[in-house]
Amino acid sequence: MKIAVFNTKSYDKQFITEANEKYHHELAFFEVHLNYETCQLAFGFEGICCFVNDELNKEVLTLLSQKGLRLVVLRCAGFNNVDIQTAAALGITVARVPAYSPHGVAEHAVTMMLALNRKIYRSYNRIREGNFSLDGLLGFEMYGKTAGIIGTGKIGALTAKILSGFGIKILAYDVTANPELESTGATYAGLNELYAQSDIISLHLPLTHDTHHIINDKSVSQMKNGVMLINTSRGGLINTQSVIDGLKSGKIAYLGLDVYEEEGDLFFEDLSGHVIQDDVFSRLLTFPNVMITGHQAFFTNTALKNISETTLKNISDFENNTIEPANLVKIELVKNDK
Ligand code: NAD
After folding, report:
1. pLDDT grade for 338, boundaries at 50, 70 and 90
2. Which helix H or strand E contains 170, and what residues bound it?
3. pTM of this prediction?
4. Atom of ligand 1 nearest to the CA of 233
5. Ligand 1 pocket test: which of 81, 155, 295 has the largest number of ligand atoms within 8 Å of its C-beta?
6. What is the whole-number distance in angstroms between the Cα of residue 328 and the centre of ligand 1?
């Protein structure tokens, strides 16, 4: 099938091209994001392949539909950038990759915990400048601490399992308990208890109306003094001003973020020659105990391989009318997603 692939970085092109050796789709790669101005590049294509920051709004979908679009394949799990109602009304199928790297994201969450605890990001720079002082690098032993895992689906459960290996006690919270996790010794608790007892709190929830700003002034006030907070899920889970206040008061002693509420204007691009206009993000960067990565938790060769494979299979399955139901984005899903 003839597919216009938008928002492609060199690594996307490499992995998609390799996976396509099996599928033989006719792919045209474009580096630009998809939006109303760039969508003319996809005129005449039956399918487009997009990523998290591409704008699949009503205007773009309507225009592309008039030019022959029948399929959107997303090379990600989230679909908040797609007007699903319009796609459905126009008869455009939207497919995604619902799961591709739970291990990679869990490993990244634990990497952030270890690096923040032992201040690796600071010692790395010090040593390069010939500063071998240990002042300010004091860490704590993970062994014997309590970690609160909020959301115990695929990634949260894996994070809990890795932490159990350090001898960390796991307190878990989810709307649905994961029996496999309980069998490894984790204990489910209410959020109040989890906040009060956890030395480390790691978020592994989807962003929904219920989970939006689950970390706010009140929840921060309930946490232990000196808590470590990690978010590798979605930026909107955290009210950023609440954690800035928590950092200033010392309530939060370590903050690790792979996601940020307004990341769409920043992440995935080289903005090193630009002035960052987001003052809240800039404030976060000033804290010595905050470590931010730019939505890279998923970014492993395994994940890129899985994403490419599933994306190309979604295209072939669309042609054969055999798309896996779990990969289809339907209006019912939108009610729960944000
Ligand atoms: P999952 O669906 O397997 O697990 C999510 C869990 O959250 C489920 O157990 C669900 O019951 C629970 N949950 C949902 N709403 C809840 C609520 N209101 N209160 C309590 N629990 C609730 O998802 P996953 O694969 O583990 O992914 C977790 C999140 O990680 C995703 O939603 C995504 O936002 C994020 N993610 C980030 C990256 C990255 O690169 N940073 C990559 C992949 C996924």
Report:
1. very low
2. strand 169-173
3. 0.91
4. 35
5. 155
6. 18
Residue 89, Cβ neighbours under 10 Å: how many? 14
Ligand 1 mean position, distance from CA 206 (Å): 4
Q: Is 236 in the pocket of ligand 1 (CB under 6 A)?
A: no
Any atom of ligand 1 within 6 Å of the Cβ of 191: no
Ligand 1 atom closest to the CA of 206, numbered from 1: 32
Q: Which atom of ligand 1 is nearest to the CA of 102?
A: 25
Nearest CA to ligand 1 atom 20: 174
Asked whether the domain spanning 102-292 has the same topology as the one spanning 2-100+301-337, the reply is yes
Nearest one of 226, 230, 220, 227 to 293, comparing CA atoms: 230
Q: Encode pLDDT of 258-308 as tens digits.
A: 999 988 889 988 999 999 999 999 999 999 999 999 999 999 999 999 999
Is the CATH code 3.40.50.720 the one for domain 2-100+301-337? yes
CA distance 311 to 317: 10
102-118 and 301-319 helices cross at what angle (nearest 10)? 160
Note the Cα 294 to chain centre separation in Å.
Answer: 9
The superfamily in CATH containing domain 102-292 is NAD(P)-binding Rossmann-like Domain (3.40.50.720)
Domain spans in the chain, listed from the N-terminal domain onward: 2-100+301-337, 102-292
Ligand 1 centroid–CA 207 distance in Å is 8
Q: Which of 319, 318, 241, 317 is nearest to 283 (CA)?
A: 241
Convert the pLDDT of each residue in 138-158 to its tens digit.
999 999 999 999 999 999 999
CB of residue 75 inside a 6 A radius of ligand 1:
no
Nearest CA to ligand 1 atom 32: 206
Cβ distance 152 to 187 under 8 Å?
A: no
Q: What are the beta bridge partners of residue 171?
A: 148, 187
Catalytic (active-site) positions: 234, 263, 295
CB 212 within 8 A of CB 237: yes
Q: Could you read off the pLDDT of 94-136 as tens digits, one per residue?
A: 999 998 889 999 999 999 999 999 999 999 999 999 999 999 9
